[in-house]
Design a protein that fits this description.
- The protein has 16 helices and twelve strands.
- It is α/β, with parallel strands linked by helices.
- It has a six-stranded mixed β-sheet with strand order 3-4-12-9-10-11, with helices on both faces. Strands 7-6-5-8 form a four-stranded parallel β-sheet, sandwiched between helices.
- The longest helix is centred in the first third of the chain and has 17 residues.
- The chain is globular, with a radius of gyration of 23 Å.
- About 5% of the residues have low confidence.
Length: about 475
């Protein structure tokens, strides 16, 4: 049976649009579009158990027999990426119509899911796991969506009379890194708009190194987003931000992958940092599809975690989503979610309401100490993961997360992108942060008695912890 997917309006306006068209919003109401799959075809193709076996077989490299045949085991997919990519492993659920030769993959997905009992005890969450999405090609979860978007663009550009000549995005760091890398792999020019002086050096160098044309603008992310939306009205530039629903199709595989790594059991909670809010709706979308196709027997609750200085979703949640007001996002160590007017607000609210989700916030002091706790437990967390971990602690203290419930926190980026933040924490230089767990360097003369004295003091401190 032929599998297909299309765009349609999230608000229910009539009309279906090709995924290879240059379109981002509903022509009738200007609402966001979403990718809709032919679920009747997916249900007819395989049972829930058969989908699980297919995905597991591709992952292990053993393959599975096609349902209703006596053929030898196969790893059927549009390209050999199914063995190395957590996204294209599930290509039927992602972008079934993409030509095989257009897929652009850099081995994204299948990132570690780690039980972290020591950190769980520190945060008051008995059964805590961390999904390390930052252990990816460009160091963040954005790779998952960008492999899909760039593959689709490659398919568009292979067609005659395609207007697209380059891809463009506004970014606070990680999106630009992923766009630049995947565009470079595909040989597609990339244009990046960044808020000047508001991202880390490690994030800034990534798109430069991959050959993107980088414009640093004297504004914040929301200002960059307004400009990129305007310049991409010319269809020669293809918009790569999360209002483009192709990104969501890759990012939705995170929730499915978590369940797969837990033996196809859904956790009770998934907690994730929330900025432009595409990831909130993406997680819900993937988990809902897996549930409807019989791959999962239930869906987890979601908790969106925002920085206190960039918290429009949290404020709306406090009044039951009855009203929404953008905010002017203030300076926060969680720079990637420093967004005051998130594009995917409407989708995120719908997702949270459907799964009895909640929204929590974290102050700078709370997120910084949460990062330090995670690092002391053997991780190397980014500030955005600190927001999610701090939210987990607060939800557990209020018994929103109940004892014994399994909680997965999504770590969205690699801590190496935020070395300056970590140095400033341990040297006590972060504003509004007490640095309770700081571990500064001890500088001593090269003198054995002095060193021995320091070691004695250190042993005493270790023994009293």
């Amino acid at each position: 049976m032929t599998l297909r997917a299309w765009y349609q309006c999230v608000r229910g306006c009539p009309g279906q649009y090709s995924l290879l068209d240059v379109i981002y919003r509903c022509p009738q109401c200007d609402g966001l579009l979403e990718v809709v799959h032919d679920e009747n075809a997916l249900t007819a193709a395989r049972t829930g158990a058969e989908w699980r076996a297919l995905f597991d077989g591709r992952r292990s490299g053993t393959g599975v027999k096609e349902p209703g045949t006596d053929s030898a085991p196969s790893t059927r997919s549009p390209a050999p990426y199914s063995l190395s990519s957590g996204v294209w492993n599930k290509w039927e659920w992602v972008l079934p119509e993409v030509p095989a030769g257009c897929i652009v993959s850099l081995g994204e997905g299948f990132t570690p899911l780690l039980p972290v009992p020591r950190l769980g005890r520190d945060l008051g969450v008995e059964d805590l796991w961390v999904k390390e999405c930052g252990i990816s090609h460009t160091g963040s979860f954005k790779d998952l969506g960008m492999t899909v978007l760039i593959s689709a663009v490659a398919g568009m550009m292979a067609a005659p009379n395609c207007p697209v000549r380059a891809v463009a995005c506004a970014s606070t760091g990680d999106t630009s890194a992923a766009l630049a890398a995947y565009a470079a792999a595909a040989g597609i020019p990339a244009l990046v708009f960044l808020p000047r002086g508001k991202i880390s050096t490690a994030q800034l160098i990534q798109p430069l190194a991959n050959g993107a044309h980088v414009l640093a603008l004297d504004t914040d992310f929301d200002g960059c987003m307004r400009i990129v939306r305007e310049v991409t009205r010319d269809h020669s530039l293809y918009l790569a931000n999360s209002m483009n629903s192709l990104r969501i199709e890759g990012q939705k595989t995170v929730g499915i992958e978590i369940a797969q790594q837990l033996g196809w059991q859904a956790p009770d909670w998934i907690i994730l940092p929330a900025g432009n809010l595409g990831n909130v709706s993406a997680l819900a979308k993937g988990l809902d599809l897996a549930h409807r196709l019989g791959v999962l027997d239930r869906r987890p609750r979601l908790a969106a975690a925002q920085a206190e200085r960039a918290n429009p979703l949290y404020r709306a949640f406090q009044n039951g989503f009855q009203t929404y007001e953008p905010v002017t996002a203030g300076p926060t160590a969680a720079s990637a979610i420093r967004i005051g007017d998130p594009v995917s607000y409407e989708k995120a609210v719908r997702a949270l309401q459907a799964c009895d989700g909640v929204v929590e916030q974290a102050a700078e002091d709370e997120l910084a100490d949460a990062v330090a706790l995670a690092d002391r437990a053997g991780l190397y967390a980014c500030p955005h993961t600190g927001v999610a971990l701090a939210a987990a602690r607060k939800l557990a203290r209020r018994a929103v997360i109940r004892p014994g419930e399994r909680v997965v926190v999504i770590s969205t980026a690699h801590g190496l992108k935020f070395t300056d933040f970590k140095i400033d924490y341990h040297e006590g230089r972060l504003p509004d942060v007490a640095s309770r767990l700081r571990n500064p360097i001890v500088e001593l003369p090269a003198d054995v008695p002095t060193v021995r004295k320091e070691l004695d003091h250190w042993v005493d401190r270790v023994e009293t912890r």
